[in-house]
Amino acid sequence: MKQTKESLGTLRTQTQSVRQLASTKVGGARAYIDDGKAKLDSRSQNALTKMEELQDTVENIKEDVIKRNVSPKPLVIKAVKADMEAVTAELQSLKEHIQTVKPMWKKTWEAELQNIVEEQQFLQHQEEFLSDLLEDNKAVLEVYGHVEKVITLRGASSRASRGRGFKPPPMDEGHTGLSTVMLEIRGAAVDQERRLKAIAANEKIREKELASRSDEFQSELNGFVVGKKLKMTGGAEEVERVRQRRNEQTLKAMFTGSTSASSSAPTSPAPE
Q: Where is the composition biased (Low complexity) (predicted)?
């Protein structure tokens, strides 16, 4: 939808620019060309008429001089020369006029050609845009047709479902619905002996579970001790025995070292 609005805005802008170009640039130049064409055509026709008259006059003088051996009068010769000069001047003026207006007309033609190209592009864009709109319209109509069919089918199915709605089975004789059910629940007798037996059975199951748990813990502890996984430290008495043993070894080492040193010492000579 947004793209469509933007396209319409672009088309409006192009249309306004084309109209403005046609009314300002091309319009004034075209009016000048049209006026110049009319004047140029009139002058050309007058020059053509004078040229034809001059040709006829010259042909007559030629026949008089060559065939009849008659010389024309000086006034005739003078008039013919004047007409020839006038025609020559007019033709030269027309030539200069054409050379002057030709570049101006070319610019106008270029502007008109550009205007024609822009108008052709504008019209082509309009045709493409219209084709897109027609396709969008066709798609919208198709989608709406599908939606309308769905609505129609849904309405028919809802009417059919309402027609064959769920009907609960008839109640038994003397049954009044929820109130009857509540009365039956309140009036139900409770078996006390069965309830006590269930409680006692539950207590026995719990005692068995506790006994099995304690047996598992005791067996795991015995296996840990029998496997000598605990380190036997001996307490304070063991520490004292280790200390005494180390002291005895130290004393033995000291005495053994002194005895070996005295036996290895040299004896001094006796005096005379």
A: 258-272
Domain residue extents for the chain: 2-160, 196-230
Task: Record the tokens describing residue 100, joined without a space.
Answer: 């002057």
pLDDT digit string, tens, across residues 197-214: 777 788 888 787 777 766
Q: Is the pTM of this model over 0.85?
A: no
| Rounded CA separation 183/188 (Å) | 9
Residue whose token pair is 């008109």: 112
Distance of alpha carbon 220 from the chain centroid? 69
Q: How far apart are the first and last CA of the chain?
A: 145
**What is the CATH number assigned to the segment(s) 2-160?**
1.20.58.1540
Q: Are 101 and 57 in contact (CB under 8 A)?
A: no
3-state per-residue secondary structure call for 192-217: HHHHHHHHHHHHHHHHHHHHHHHHHH
